[in-house]
Amino acid sequence: MAVRVSIVVPVFNHWACTRDCLQSLAMHLRGDWFEVLAVDDGSTDQTPAELPGLGAALFGEAFTLLSQPHNRGFAAAVNRGSRAARGNWLLLLNNDTVWTHDCLSPCLAALDADPALAGVGPTLLYPEGGRLQHLGVAVAHSIKCVHPYHLYPSGHEVAGRSRRLQCITAAAMVVSRRLFLDLDGFFEGYVNGMEDVDFCARVAASGRHFTVLPQARLIHAEHQSAGRFARERENSRLLLDRCGDLLRPDLHRLAGEDGYALRFTPWLDPVLHPGPERERTVTAAWKADPRPGRVEALLEMEPAWEKGYVILAGWLERRGEPAAALAVRTRQGAFLPSLAVLEETQRLARICGDAGRLQAARTRLAAVRQVLADAAGLRAVAVAEHARAHAAGDTLLLEVWDRWMTQFTAR
């Protein structure tokens, strides 16, 4: 049988992750319609000794090991594996993923059903607690890319629908091999970051799109690569130079489709707030039974309910449970960051003697205040994005920027 899918797995150290990934893959995929290409990027742990035997034992002749003499980075490893692949489709797969079911077949079915679909990925979940990691990548402004609904419960309604997206992560991406190679694959000037956004932006410029499937789910440990964020600033500059004119803000549209409203913090980080209907729903549920002990369940239903965090954290602290209150404020800071919330998190961390969270709060506050110190620069970004929204005729996004400038700057 001809190979239909080539699964390309870049590997650099972290042998236990690679082992678990390949074993789970073998457990949930059967047949001779796929091949697995592991690209070892110069691993220095037990990977070179263990990987050949395990790959052969699990996949037989369908396994290929491509060894590089040194670590050339994620993009180069993916490109090498893709050039050696035989399948019509590529599954680009991080080695820190774990399969719990066959999440590949639904992706292939979606691609077969829609010629305008350039690529598909599964929903990615964190290993602990099963919270959402990836439902797609959205553009908030300029090249500011975010994962909508990051850390929402995996059973939340937003996880039950697919979306038309400009970008998805390459941690698990199914894409045509021909398309990937025709676009010269990933640009290798990036160092372990943004190469997938760059690729997707180039694809989206041709009018095609991506999606993430709710019925296909994969566990992803995330950020196992050494130095994962060491070149974040340089990668962002490169993305701006290469794709600044290709990416279009879409977070406001995606949020609106789910009943949320996009807002920006004073330092221009995007935040999703419940729209009127969502706010009415959670408020009515609270008023029907206003016991503080119920708030946790309501926050699972509506993680962006600001009042709920205030009620729950205050109640817990009054009960003499500052550590629990700290956990609530930390979660609030992830969904609804503000200076007040970060300062409250810092206060509670100090009371609890939680050195890790105290340092994290201090670091984040310092970073935010550094950005806020450049008020002129923030306003310049807002003015430029306002003009961009006006030129695009995007009235919804214009309202978002009008609101920010009214709240945080003098006209």
TrEMBL record:
Keyword annotations: Transferase
A Pfam family hit: Glycos_transf_2
GO molecular function: transferase activity
Residue ranges constituting the Glycosyltransferase 2-like domain according to the UniProt record: 6-127
PANTHER family: RHAMNOSYLTRANSFERASE WBBL (PTHR43179)
Keyword Transferase found: yes
Gene3D superfamilies: Spore Coat Polysaccharide Biosynthesis Protein SpsA, Chain A
Species of origin: Megalodesulfovibrio gigas (strain ATCC 19364 / DSM 1382 / NCIMB 9332 / VKM B-1759) (Desulfovibrio gigas)
Signal peptide (from-to): none
Source lineage: Bacteria, Pseudomonadati, Thermodesulfobacteriota, Desulfovibrionia, Desulfovibrionales
Protein name in the entry: Putative family 2 glycosyl transferase
